[in-house]
Amino acid sequence: MLLEIITPDKKIYAGDAISVSVPGTDGRFQLLNSHAPIISTLLNGQVKVKDKEGEKIFDVKGGVIENLENKVIILAEAV
């Protein structure tokens, strides 16, 4: 799935991801390939991205996540 992590200042990450784990308002959840469409708010916490190169961790300061047709966009207030 295609993942983009964006802040108001710049694009932090763009690429293919195997899985994405985020700190949702109602608890941490994970998105995998072909996940159902979802929009959720995010709390401050770690976004864990697994891709071909391994795992990357980004500390986000709240935001919103949207997943639609294997394209995940994270709009973070700050990273």
How is this fold's topology laid out?
Layout: E1 2-6, E2 11-16, E3 19-24, E4 27-32, E5 38-51, E6 54-68, E7 71-76
Parallel strand pairs: 1-7
Antiparallel strand pairs: 1-2, 3-4, 3-5, 5-6, 6-7
Describe the structure.
By secondary structure, the protein is an all-beta fold. It is built from no helices and 7 strands. Strands 2-1-7-6-5-3-4 form a 7-stranded mixed beta sheet, with no helix packed on it. The two termini are 21 Å apart.
Characteristic terms for this protein:
79 residues, mainly beta, ATP Synthase, domain 1, seven-stranded mixed sheet
Mean pLDDT: 97
The SSE order reads: EEEEEEE
Count helical runs.
0
Per CATH, the architecture is Sandwich
Total domains, how many? 1
Runs in which pLDDT lies below 50 for 5 or more consecutive residues are none
Task: Please give the number of β-strands.
Answer: 7
Shape: globular
Hey, roughly how much beta strand do the residues contain? Answer: over 45%
How far the N terminus sits from the C terminus, by CA atoms, comes to 21 Å
Strand order of the largest sheet: 2-1-7-6-5-3-4
CATH topology: ATP Synthase, domain 1
Structural category: mainly beta
Radius of gyration: 11 Å
What is the CATH top level name?
Mainly Beta
CATH superfamily: F0F1 ATP synthase delta/epsilon subunit, N-terminal
Q: What is the helix content?
A: under 10%
Major sheet description: 7 strands, mixed
Question: Briefly, what is this?
Answer:
The chain is mostly beta strands and 79 residues long. The protein has a single domain, classed as Sandwich (ATP Synthase, domain 1). 0% of the residues lie in helices and 73% in strands.
